[in-house]
Task: inverse folding
């Protein structure tokens, strides 16, 4: 069982425990998220992971065609796509993930509240190249088990932290890609400053992803100075997809 949780986080995790398993034959190769970020880092290119989400608990709402969005992001140099599959709170679907995976040749992150191996089986089958593992909702043992399980498919998870305690657990678990999320999961407030403070504490042999609340080229430059290797951006690009051209 995942950690003790309350409120919407408890509900989202309870739902995740009962998500159906999708059985299908994966038809695309793995486009490694780890290698994609590393490659951009080595070439000193800005690594953007563009997120497809249509709503969220903080009140975000956008209507946009998933395939058009994914193609535009790929054509404009995004190194990856983060696709929300959580349905109740984020309006996501496995169908969007499968359709996007059938369309693009860049890395795809299944963005969900992953707490079971069955969800990782499904991510792989649908064509995802990585899964999100959120430290806040998992025990350290569960995190280690799910990391190992994802790697058995050659999927390297993005392990998300919100504070220094989470970071310690992520490092103990052997995570290789660490995402620092500026959104507080309880209050839903954004605080980019938290990300800037935690980034320098992440060892340099990890790949570091800044997540949430990035709204300009200046934010990216600031986060780079603090050590970020990649940037996960949803709201800005879902509202104005053409902005990707200004970010790279
Ligand atoms: O996006 C939300 O409002 C949200 C609310 C509660 C928990 C998580 C939430 N978002 C998850 C994410 O990680 C973001 O969608 C992602 O980092 C992109 O953030 P943004 O660019 O701020 O949309």
Result:
């Amino acid at each position: 069982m995942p950690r003790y949780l309350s409120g919407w986080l408890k509900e989202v995790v309870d739902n995740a425990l009962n998500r159906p398993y999708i059985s299908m034959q994966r038809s695309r190769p793995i486009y490694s998220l780890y290698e994609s970020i590393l490659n951009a880092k080595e070439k000193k290119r800005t690594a953007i992971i563009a997120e497809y989400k249509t709503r969220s608990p903080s009140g975000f709402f956008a209507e946009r065609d998933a395939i058009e969005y994914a193609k535009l992001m790929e054509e404009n140099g995004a190194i990856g796509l983060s696709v929300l599959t959580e349905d109740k709170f984020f309006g996501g679907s496995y169908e969007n993930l499968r359709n996007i995976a059938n369309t693009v040749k860049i890395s795809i992150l299944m963005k969900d509240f992953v707490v079971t191996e069955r969800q990782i089986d499904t991510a792989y089958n649908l064509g995802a190249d990585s899964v999100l593992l959120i430290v806040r909702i998992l025990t350290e043992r569960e995190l280690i088990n799910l990391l190992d399980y994802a790697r058995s498919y050659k999927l390297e998870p993005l392990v998300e932290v919100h504070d220094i305690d989470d970071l310690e657990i992520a490092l103990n678990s052997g995570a290789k890609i660490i995402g620092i999320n500026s959104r507080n999961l309880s209050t839903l407030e954004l605080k980019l400053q938290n990300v800037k403070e935690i980034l320098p504490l992440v060892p340099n042999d990890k790949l570091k992803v800044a997540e949430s609340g990035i709204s300009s080229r200046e934010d990216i430059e600031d986060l780079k100075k603090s050590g970020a290797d990649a940037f996960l951006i949803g709201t800005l690009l879902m509202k104005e997809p053409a902005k990707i051209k200004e970010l790279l």
